[in-house]
Specification:
Layout (H helix, E strand, L loop, with lengths): L2 H13 L3 H12 L2 E2 H8 L3 H13 L3 E4 L2 E4 L1 H11 L16 H17 L2 H22 L2
Antiparallel strand pairs: 1-3, 2-3
Length: 142
């Protein structure tokens, strides 16, 4: 993509780069307003809002007609596309699956201890299984 093609897109993101600007957009989507009415609704300084509105106007998100600020079709499209995007699915947590690797390690240690007639293999396998249990638990809870 050419640099010149990126500028209008960057302007849109910049124009909506704060919670205050998004709040302005959402209020104007409900109903067009004058600057002072918008300032009262947001309990904000009109001069700060004016700067934000002008920035949003430069990006093509709002327009002013007879002192009233309106959302443009671009703003309507941007906000509706964000609102309509599906929420991210949360990974299901819990369960006992994290016990499987340490259980296998411990079972192998028991088998080796019996097969080799070395009880210390059992102690080492138990210690290794406990460390692995901690690691598996931490990884499964992320």
């Amino acid at each position: 993509m050419e640099r010149e093609e990126l500028k209008p897109i960057a302007k849109i993101f910049e124009a909506l780069s704060s919670e205050s600007r998004v709040a302005i957009a959402l209020l104007l989507l409900k109903k067009p307003m004058r600057l002072n009415e918008l300032a009262r609704s947001m309990e904000a300084d009109p001069s700060n809002l004016r700067k934000m509105l002008i920035n949003m106007e430069d990006a093509g998100l709002v327009m002013r007609k007879n002192g009233i600020w309106y959302p443009t079709p671009l703003l309507i499209e941007v906000i509706s596309s964000i609102k309509s995007s599906p929420p991210k699915k949360k990974r299901k947590r819990g369960g006992w699956g994290f016990l499987i690797p340490p259980a296998i390690v411990f079972a192998l240690a028991v088998f080796q201890a019996i097969h080799q007639n070395q009880p210390l293999y059992l102690v080492g396998g138990a210690m290794l299984a406990l460390v692995l249990l901690g690691v598996c638990y931490i990884l499964s809870s992320r």
